[in-house]
Design goal:
Layout lengths: L5 H4 L38 E8 L9 H8 L3 E8 L2 H14 L6 E5 H10 L20 H6 L10 E7 L1 E5 H6 L6 H8 L3 H13 L6 E3 L2 H10 L18 H15 L11 H8 L3 E6 L1 H10 L8 E5 L5 E8 L7 H11 L2 H11 L2 E2 L8 H4 L11 H11 L9 H10 L11 H17 L1
Parallel strand pairs: 1-2, 1-3, 6-7
Antiparallel strand pairs: 3-9, 4-9, 4-10, 5-7, 5-8
Length: 441
């Protein structure tokens, strides 16, 4: 999962791309600033070096895409500078964009930050819609729009998305008297998160000893918020999370689940939460594609094949990123070409098959690398097809500049408190105070 450490939880998954065949923390935490891509370093005599500023584990190197591109373009050498956590990466990116210095040839932007970058720094970034071979139809419409300014400039090309499903343990569901077939499981809660919580109540009556229905309050809340079109901001850009009844309803339903002991008491992507995966302490988890990689990385070997994937109560998205090209880069034209190539359907499909990053290009959904994708944890489950269906049904969300702050406050400073003995009202008050204080900074 892309940078899905503690910090990634703060952003609705941080662009969340988990390696299907590896664990979460595949990203090399190189916090050095790097150059903006000089053409005479690292690439050998006569080569142009293109540098990428990334966070977490995008997986381009691991999937062999850099090597493939360099073979197609012998005059190009690619280097990436990766910072593991977006919470460290993004402030530095803002500083570089503000000063127009220290930028890489290509800079990644996480979905929770794309609105701020698009509205504030578009004049520092290339309009990638004008790059040869780039067409709006190559991306899901809502993904394209997230990086498009009001005057029609598209400053970021979508990499991955995080279409939501529910991953569940078939053996634990069976022990609790619930169906195990993915279609039947999906029918338990189809169309309603209230039904999902009721399924959890049913599970808990006969739950395997020491287990909860779901992993965490934050995971449940993130899933519900990810299925809303309007969450924290309205279409005019006004902060409305406190007055949006859908946000409050999601918070209250999560708090109810926490009070009833249906969710674990850990914060996602913390060591204690990792142990609940290893020790089979929960039966279900909100599950974008990258979550399967995280589950695999933290599970014991005997968990392989015991998981399956069912449709979520409502389609939603959790995670995703973009590639941007700063105008001040030393190799803008070559960077444009590389960004377009890395985000083309064939490369997105390959990345999913190797790394678990689900494509934002619908053309990739019919490619064999997606339709034939399988995961060790879920056996023969056609995960590519399931996640493609979820992607097509995901709502077009209004993304605000401070989504990350609001999301973190509702989970880390909000619903988690209910598992510690606070009332839902107390948890909501603490969360909103924390958020508002941070928004004022």
């Amino acid at each position: 999962m892309r940078a899905r450490t503690r910090s990634a939880h703060r952003t609705v998954a941080f662009a969340a791309v988990a390696a299907l065949g590896a664990g979460l923390l595949a990203g090399c935490a190189n916090d050095s600033g790097g150059s903006s891509g000089s053409s005479d370093t690292g690439g050998g005599k006569g080569k142009t070096t293109i540098t990428l500023g990334l966070f977490g584990a995008f997986g381009y190197k691991e999937a062999g895409l850099y090597t493939e591109y360099e073979k197609l373009h012998p005059n190009i050498d690619i280097q990436e500078n990766t910072i593991e956590r977006n919470e460290n990466y993004y402030p530095a990116l803002v500083n570089h964009l503000t000063t127009n210095s220290g930028l890489q040839d290509i800079q990644a932007v996480e979905v929770s930050n794309i609105a701020e970058v698009t509205s504030t720094f578009a004049n520092k970034l290339v309009d990638l819609s004008k790059v040869s071979g780039v067409q709006k139809s190559g991306w899901l419409d809502w993904k394209w729009q997230q990086a498009t300014t009001k005057d029609g400039q598209t400053i970021g090309l979508g990499t991955d998305i995080g279409p939501m499903a529910i991953c569940y343990r078939k053996d634990m569901f069976q022990q609790a008297g619930l169906p195990t077939d993915r279609e039947a499981v999906g029918r338990l809660w189809a169309g309603s998160w209230d039904k999902f919580v009721k399924a959890g109540e049913q599970y808990q009556k006969k739950a395997p000893s020491g287990s909860t229905f779901m992993d965490s309050p934050g995971g449940l809340l993130n899933a519900m918020l990810g299925s809303l079109s309007t969450r924290f901001y309205d279409s005019s850009g006004k902060v409305v999370y406190k007055t949006n009844p859908a946000v409050k309803a999601a918070f209250d339903l999560t708090a109810k689940a926490a009070q009833e002991g249906l969710v674990g008491s850990q914060t996602q992507f913390q060591p204690a939460w990792d142990q609940t995966i290893s020790n089979s302490k929960f039966a279900a988890v909100s599950c974008p594609p990258w979550m399967l990689g995280y589950i695999k990385g933290k599970s014991k070997p005997d968990a392989a094949g015991k998981w399956d994937v069912a449709a979520a109560p409502q389609a939603g998205n959790w995670g995703g990123s973009f590639l941007t090209v700063p105008k001040s880069g030393k190799n803008v034209t070559e960077a444009e070409k590389l960004a377009a190539w890395l985000t083309a359907p064939a490369q997105q499909a390959k990345l999913f098959s190797v790394q678990g990053s689900f494509p934002s290009s619908p053309a990739a959904y019919t490619m064999s690398a997606v339709t034939g994708a399988r995961n060790e944890m879920t056996g023969d489950t056609p995960i590519g097809t399931i996640f493609a269906t979820a992607a097509k049904g995901s709502p077009v969300q209004i993304i605000g500049p401070k989504d990350q702050i609001i999301q973190q406050g509702l989970t880390d400073n909000g619903v988690i408190l209910v598992t510690k003995g606070k009332s839902p009202a107390e948890a909501w008050t603490t969360a909103t105070k924390t958020i508002d204080n941070n928004l004022e900074k």
